[in-house]
Amino acid sequence: MLINTYFSPLLKEEERQFEQSITVMVDVLRASTTVCAALFNGAKEIIPTENSEQAMRIFNGLDRSIRFIGGEKNLVKHAGFDAGNSPLEYTTDKCLNKTVILTTTNGSKLFTLAKTSKQRFVASFANFSVIFQKLKSLLEENKTKEDIQNINFFCAGNNGQFSYEDTLCIGGLIYKITQELDLQFELSDSSDAAKNLFDYHQENLFEFLLNSEHSRKLIGAGFQNDLNICLAYDTFPIIPIIDGISIKKSII
Ligand code: MLT
Predict the structure, then answer these.
(1) In angstroms, what is the span from residue 107 Cα to ligand 1's centroid?
(2) Is the pLDDT of residue 15 over 70?
(3) Fewest C-beta atoms under 10 Å: which of 2, 46, 99, 242?
(4) What is the pLDDT of residue 252?
(5) Which residues, 6 or more positions from 12, have their beta carbon under 8 angstroms from its beta carbon?
(6) Contact 242, 121 (CB under 8 A)
(7) Is ligand 1 within 6 A of the CB of residue 9?
(8) Mind listing the pLDDT tens digit for each residue in 133-148?
(9) Which atom of ligand 1 is nearest to the CA of 75?
(10) Is the pTM here over 0.90, yes or no?
(11) What is the CATH number of domain 2-30+113-249?
(12) Nearest by Cα to 33 from 161, 209, 252, 197
């Protein structure tokens, strides 16, 4: 089984490229964490979009009583939206039973990729342990079926560039998968690098990540409290599964 890591979502997708794969999408700061918060707090589903125009079109087609629109461009909430991209805004009183339309600078686009995968999940530190458990049980079941050949991890990154927080979250998952599962894995260089980087930083992980490029931008824009939520293990322990165009809470 090959574990591959994409440090940025800028890839040329070939048709059927992901057919034998489980794919895990990560945007720790902050779209993955926001998806976890909204679903944990009772949203019916999240529809991730490629841009704000597409988000508005979908939103306008939905009944007022069931819709909620959120997102940002370069950390700024779009005019007229119900929320920006802070997980703290996606509370039960705002999201319960709602269809949440989400558009963000990097993450929401990422969640629309790799459609041909067998299963696609959204991961973050906020749901780290349950995502690990889900991957573990899928890989153990696969011992007899052998229909999954690859795990693909995707970082949302920063406008096509590497990001520490996504890489270290993925590195942590790869570290646990390779340590705790009695299976043979082949790691791409990118996966091996992510795992080694996690191993190097794991004792002071969140202190280290508080100083990442995107953390510094969030602090500068007044979102310090978001970092307390996003850079902590298991704040929203649910499994978001991407099902067609929408992200739903998976039954564990
Ligand atoms: C993104 O999609 O780039 C983000 O989640 C940015 C953010 O809101 O912090």
Answers:
(1) 6
(2) no
(3) 2
(4) 66
(5) none
(6) yes
(7) no
(8) 999 999 999 888 878 9
(9) 8
(10) yes
(11) 3.90.1560.10
(12) 209
